[in-house]
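Table 4 source record.
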Amino acid sequence: MRTLNRLLLTSLLMVAPVVAFAADDAPSADPDVTIRQEGDKTIQEYRQNGFLYAIKITPKNGKPYFLVRADGSEGNFIRSDEPDMLIPAWKIFEW
């Protein structure tokens, strides 16, 4: 019986750090919000696990609006309140 208890205790001590490490890498349910100022606009970027999925723009004189992903592609956003409005996304230079 003592051997079984020691074996159980040893296995628990070996597994505990692995469980703690796995809990640190678990994806977060809360989005990461980055807030920055550009001129007279406040821009809030919403990210989930590093993936940018929405941008809230609040102009100084005007009502706020959201830009959301048009599809799964990188950098292709549309306004949530006016989905037919095209948002330009040209690349001028690329290094």
